[in-house]
């Protein structure tokens, strides 16, 4: 409880970790607010069904609050029907405003995860896929970092919940704003799961490597961060992890 987990991917796609955490927290009985900026609801639902979870059922029973970023962006840019019906500003209101202000998105997260008296969920979870999209939509790095800061205070500190955020990064990239956000988030994370493509290129039996960084230095114990490195292969319904150089194809 109260942990901030950063999912970072470089030269590969780390979305399999998002699907893992989404199904994991729903099975655990947690209240989940999923800010999905990268794919449609049907995409996440199809993958979740393979993992034994129904997002539609979770939404109906109030366990999952799903923000479909692609649909919200289209509604904001080409029509205002959704806002007029609900009477509430869109969480992605900043797209149509001159000021890069993510307060509406934070209010959406806070409202979604603040427990009601009738709620019996184990704990709140905020899941974001993927934070880099906010920069592409016009938000400034400072606004994105402020949004994450306020979410950490509310979800992690006050509600004793967890936050899981995916960001794309590329050390050779000229996108300075994105690298600034990624570096800042790394400094504040309790756990970093850094997925990288193989330096040697594509391999049929090894899809990449994952670096697990436990930030012990954040706990004021003056210890070095604990780092573990594994390689992995993504299968239809699960992922296989193994030590570097010990894939089934090699052995």
Automatic annotation (TrEMBL):
CDD domains: Elp6. The keyword Zinc does not apply. GO terms for biological process: tRNA wobble uridine modification. It comes from the Eukaryota. Pathway: tRNA modification; 5-methoxycarbonylmethyl-2-thiouridine-tRNA biosynthesis. Its main location: cytoplasm. Keywords: Cytoplasm, Nucleus, tRNA processing. It holds the Pfam family ELP6. The keyword Ribonucleoprotein does not apply. It is found in: Cytoplasm; Nucleus. Belongs to the ELP6 family. This is Elongator complex protein 6. It comes from Nyctiprogne leucopyga. The lineage of its organism: Eukaryota, Metazoa, Chordata, Craniata, Vertebrata. The gene is Elp6.
